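Hi U.,

Before I forget, here's the chain from the pilot set. I'm dumping it here mostly so it's searchable later in email.
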Amino acid sequence: MKRYTHILFDHDGVLVDTEPLYFRATQTCVADLGVDLRLPQYLAMMAEGRNAWELARQLGASEFDIEQARERRNSLYRELLDSEPIDIAGVEDVLANLALNYRIAIVTTSRTEDFELIHRNRDIVSLVDFVLTRDAYEHSKPHPDPYLKALERFGIEPDVALAVEDSQRGLRSAIAAGLDCAVVYNRFTSDHDFSQATYQITRLADLIPHVLNRS
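Structure:
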């Protein structure tokens, strides 16, 4: 049986419940450019690694206008992060338990500024070996770059590591990097196709009895 020694965690939707807030901020700011962004469309684009600014370009928005709207989105998102609850119950306990036997990293598409804001008053980062944010690699998920960078940083081959994701985009990234992947249920991304996942679990705590004890 395969034995994992390392666990590579996605961040948004797995360790903190931030994805609905990012959608709300994006939906509000692309509306300024004439885009009526609905959740199913957003999720479909997300699965493919695309973004809503493509829709604004199709409507004739200039790159200047898009950049201004993007900056407004980033600002609004930070406001929401400061004012809305985003904790997922039990995450720190799970990480603390896993850290006794596994090397752990966070591999996220979050911007460094947003990540630091999220973890300003949380202890999650202290429980992992390192964090890779968006500026640490060239191509974002669903490309394999984020996970390949994590494997390189640890100096390991993919067969000893397990990725933990909640989106189809993240799952595709993990698979492309040669990793097994456990997908944890997230209501926000529950319509994504997870048929290629190695494991599907209901909550993060299920990693321990249902996945890692098999390794």
